[in-house]
Description:
The complex is a heterodimer of chains A (482) and B (459).
Chain A: H1 2-15, E1 20-36, E2 39-57, E3 60-66, H2 71-89, E4 105-109, H3 121-136, E5 142-160, E6 165-183, E7 186-192, E8 199-201, H4 205-210, H5 213-228, E9 231-232, E10 236-242, H6 244-256, H7 261-264, E11 294-297, E12 318-323, E13 326-327, H8 334-339, E14 349-350, E15 359-360, E16 365-367, H9 374-379, E17 383-395, E18 401-413, E19 416-422, E20 425-429, H10 430-435, E21 437-440, E22 446-455, E23 460-468, E24 471-478
Helix pairs in contact in A: 1-2, 3-5
Chain B: H1 2-19, E1 24-40, E2 43-61, E3 64-70, H2 75-90, H3 116-119, H4 123-140, E4 144-162, E5 167-185, E6 188-198, H5 206-219, E7 229-235, H6 237-251, H7 254-258, E8 270-271, E9 279-281, E10 304-307, E11 311-312, H8 321-325, E12 354-356, H9 363-368, E13 372-386, E14 391-404, E15 407-411, E16 415-420, H10 421-424, E17 430-431, E18 436-438, E19 441-443, E20 446-456
Parallel strand pairs in B: 7-13, 12-19
Antiparallel strand pairs in B: 1-2, 1-4, 2-3, 4-5, 5-6, 7-20, 8-11, 9-10, 9-12, 13-14, 14-15, 14-16, 16-20, 17-20, 18-19
Helix pairs in contact in B: 4-5
Amino acid sequence: MSFDLGKTALEEATKKGASYADIRIGEILDEHLTVKKGVPEEVTLLQTTGFGVRVIVNGAWGFAGSVDLTKKEVIETTQKAVSIALASSKLKKKDVVLASVKTRKGKYSTPMKKDPFKIPIEEKIEILMTAERIIAEHSSFIKSSSAFFRDLREKKLFMSTEGAEINQQITWCGGGLEGIAVKNGEVQRRSYPASFRGNFSTSGYEFFESLALVDNAKKVGKEALQLLDAEKCPSTETSLILSGDQLALQIHESCGHPTELDRALGTEADYAGTSFLVPDKLGKLKYGSKNVNIVADATVPGGLGTFGYDDEGTLAKQVYLVKEGLFTGYQTSRETAAELGFKESSGGMRADSPLALPLIRMTNINLLPGDWKVDEMIEETRKGILMLVNKSWSIDDKRLNFQFGTEIAWEIKNGSKEKMLKNPTYTGITPAFWGTCDAISKEDWEMHGTPNCGKGVPGQVMYVGHGCSTARFRNISVGLIK
Amino acid sequence: MVTKRLIDISEKTVKTALKEGADQAQVASFLLDDTLTRFANSQIHQNIASKTGGIAIKVVMNKKIGTLRVNTLGEKQIEDAVKKVVKIAKVTPHNKDFRSLPEPQKWTPLKGAFDSETALCTPDYRAEKVKEIIETAHSKSSIVKAVAGSFSTGSVAFGISNSLGVSAWAQMSLASINTTVISEVEGSEGFGSAEQYSRFVEDIDHIQVASEAAEKSVKSVKPMKISPGDYEVILSPRAVAVLLSYLGYIGFSATMYQDGQSFVKYHLEKQVFDEKLSVKDDARDSLSLYAVPVDGEGVPKKAVQLIDKGIVSERSICYDSFTAGKEKNKKSTGHSIPPVVRFYPYPRPLPINVIASPGDASIDEMIADTKRGIFVTRFHYTNPLEPTKAILTGLTRDGTFLIENGEISKPVVNLRYTDSMLSALKDIPMIGEKLVQVDDTTAPAMKLKKLRFTGVTEY
């Protein structure tokens, strides 16, 4: 059925004068379970089906999508996409050119042991209820406690007038915990394994089980409480050690977004902004120290941005963005790749639903491991602060000036981890910050899933991943809340 | 009529859910037509149309609650969805905090909410206006390098029914134009932006948007660096709207209040802001953009005085039926988020019709009254740091200027602010006389005695 509808769209587009057309037909199942303060606050299934047609007519793009999977609707929607492209072509400076792609008939399915959608809801909720109860019962100062589970399955068929025919089934799941302690108007939060509902992976239910929420719940409650009486992070310039769960967002904001080529070429200028990594700086700009190697890699097992093919049919691949500190690459689409004369796309075009237009999105943006042990890194730090688990974030529209806050920090003094610190924050300018990176761990490298990356107009929310390990930065401004 | 169809679907689905064994059921069906022409580098680069619809079903079985949202209005698929959500509810533990779905209340539709010309706006119309925006911006100066932005038009409609007799609907059209202009002199870029929203596409003055963005952009090239610190600031309505919208998110939602995370909880009946600051949430006020008379549960939206002459109180809090049920003698204020939003059912009630009271000053008067200060066109990437202290951080963008001796003197690089709104909004010497709709917030310009800037960018 889907194949026939796809063929109908491509034939209609060609008949109406499209020089290129593609269609994505898909279905998304998205299950959210939340237990908060002892009750199942959210037991929700979101189900999205539909299709989106992209066409190039007169050298300009048109796109239209609809939820009705009928032949009549597919034809009408394709015609609408063509008329939109004709309107676009009135205001073009040049014709759209696409970098070549090897035309494929392919299949991909996320490898997994246990299908999370086959695990009974009551079994998942029982784990959440138990873990949440442990946090809540830790202290009367715990005013809010929550446990989260989410699984998502996306099935999609991609077809193009170039002959592509690709079926994919992507499945991911995960979860987390949150405890909020309140005393005298002060609020402190601890999360596990990461903030904003936890950690997620393109895996089966075995990933959620590996998080062992029940075993980790007590520590969440305990540390939230301890933070209330902890000393404030001092305002100073010092050595900063970031654990992977915080470094993941640092990579996301200060390397992931600025290496999106659409931003660098100005096409997101009205909303998210542009990028300091303009094409003139490619291969020339010192982005970080020699220790810094960052890749976009859609092939890493378990990465939240792992798939078989992107939404233009480009095979998943690894691309260097930063090599030994030098800015060397972009995340691209076929169109933007052609604009800079690249032979092929980096394979980063993704849409958050079959009804949405694909945009350049992160896949897995990973900081490659170094050769340090975490203990050695701490032992070799005379004075510094170790920060863990993101609490707040903000970065400017060129991705230079950033400020992050984390949930918890530890003072490092003469090579040992000393007292707990609350309200930790740090700030910097992207290349200067990465330029001070003098140590990256080799032993705690893992993937961190970010299911809520926003971009585009109208806004789309994409699931992306970041692989990294603990790393150290020198002479960083910390403690910005007076 | 679209809304009649949606109500029929919702009512029929409620009956089906009751037949399947639900004690209570609530159904929201919706349609969303979204069209958008996006431009950058002075040409159209994205042009899209998306038609979606769906249904969100909540069933209650002995205080066990299940929710399912599916983006179809097909009869068979809805029947399947009801069976599925009943299964979900059956295996869900009791929610001891749940009292009941809301009882029906009298409501009346809002006039002037829907404009068919806006809902049915064509890509050719949008392309024509975008062409004029680009031409206008370039005509302002030869240093204008690129024009970017978006022009969106469309409509939303929803119908909500529940097993206690709620039957309510809303239909609204929406148009917006946002333009960013980039100028360049000797390698130094200047950015300027402007935007307008309306329920009526013909009310949007696209030439004005283009002119304002271009003028700011041209004036922004070669910005100077200034030191971080405390400055007097004049905030445009767009910048004020961001701050008020975040206060709504972190302060006035019952969820944050009940969790002890809202600053309101710790400042009840106190003069926490300048007494010139009054802010309400009122969907029935024609100054508000989102003309929805009922919320996501079909409860009539009530006006809530969020800030009354600088004072916050228990009356400032916005409730849905679930959060109201957790407190004694509380009733929903109609602030459950409507079903057309992406993540409906949204996990917390929120004010989305925020309106600040105007003052009597013009922006020119505010500038003339300032010896040394900063003018902010808009804020970017604002986020809360500490909700109980209302500490926010973010950056300026698209037109930040130094004011010296009553005049705008020079462009400055973008600045990061990190400050508590409890201190920043405590002393507001002047408030603008003109209110501007900025998405969910209608705000005037404001002059603040002090805003703390904690960092600078390099452009």
